[in-house]
Every structure is written in structure tokens, then in C-alpha cells.
Amino acid sequence: MTDQTAIPRFAVGVDVGGTFTDVFFLDEARGRIDIAKVPSTRGDQATGFIEGLRSRAEPKQIATVVHGTTVGTNALLERKGARTGIITTRGFRDVLEMRRRDRPSTWGLWGQFVPVVITSRFGNRVPLLANMVEGGKTPLLSAAELAEIGYRLVIFPGGLTRALAHCMTAYFASLKQNGTTAPFRDQMLDFAALNALIGTPELLAQGRQYDPSRYEDRP
Known about the structure:
- It is built from six helices and six strands.
- By secondary structure, it is of the alpha/beta class.
- Among the domains are: 4-74, Nucleotidyltransferase, domain 5 (2-Layer Sandwich), CATH 3.30.420; 158-208, no CATH class.
- The chain is extended, with a radius of gyration of 29 Å.
- The N and C termini lie far apart (60 Å).
- The relative contact order is 0.07.
């Protein structure tokens, strides 16, 4: 006889809230539903989550779990939690203020809602990273020009890719023609220079700090 308690038959939905964790159970084998409400555990949300699951079923009986949480949204709306910074793509920095999470009316020409983020409280917006994808729509400014308007980091992924492609094309052409790396070695780093560049000696020195043989003679 088959042990019915061992057959996964429950589809479970869990909503972890700031005060309570709500759990919905669908017994797919019997076509029945049940609900449970347990206290949320702020120290570890998983504790209340698991307690909610075990309140109506054993883990081996659960076939599917779908879950979500309003904890993050609540912290934002209630203005609780640590002060944080928001990193956005240029042109999208107002997305949070233009949210739809708690607007009384999603559609229409007018809307009334209290701003979630008080911008003046957090200071001025500061540009951080410029992604210079040359050939695209990103303005082709120099790093110095970007620094003048407040950017701290500038990356050139497109230029890096093209530079590597140019170098590799020349390398493979030489290798195909000569069958050896010898003619190209003046344009290559030897292993000592490569290790120095990537910091291998320093990494090895740090690793030796954890060598077990250093502690074998200690009482």
C-alpha cells in the first residue's frame, strides 16, 4: 500500500509580511484549500516561513512553493531601515518616485500620492559611473570631461573589446604563418611579468599565512 503522507500533493503560496506570514495550501489530490497565519520572524524570515509550511503539511508532502514578501516595500513606505544609496542608469533616476506600487489610480491624467523618497533628505544626486559604449548613443566624452561634471568611474567596454580583437588578430596571423610564438614574443609578457602584473606573488604570500604546517608545533 502506498504511503499517502509521502506523496507530494500540496501547492503552497507564502506571503511574508512585516507582522505575519500568510500561507495558502492547495491539496491538489483532494481539491481542498486551507490557510495558515503565523508570526513573522524578523531576525530570520526563513524561520516563520518554515513554521508556516509545517503548520499544515510535512515538507515531503509539498510539491510546489511560490512565495513573495512585502518586507522591503514596508520598510520603504514606513521610512524604516538603513540609509541607502540608489544606483540607476542615467535617464532613469526618477523611476522610484514615479512608482505605481501604491498609486490610487494607475491610469489617467492626474495622480495623487505621497513621494516615497524625500530627495532633499538624502542630499544631491551624484553621477558615479559612465559606460562609454563608443558607436552607440552614449556621448563620446573624455574621462577628464566626465570628471568635471562629477563622474567617478568611466569604463570603455567597447574600446577594450576592439583593442583585444586587434591584438588577437595579429597574434593568430603570426602563429598561422610561423607555427610558433617566437616572432611575437616581443609583444607578449613572459610569465614572470604576467605574474607580477596580476599580483601572483602577493596572493601566494597571503596564502602561506594559512599553511597548516605553521601551526603544527603549537600547543
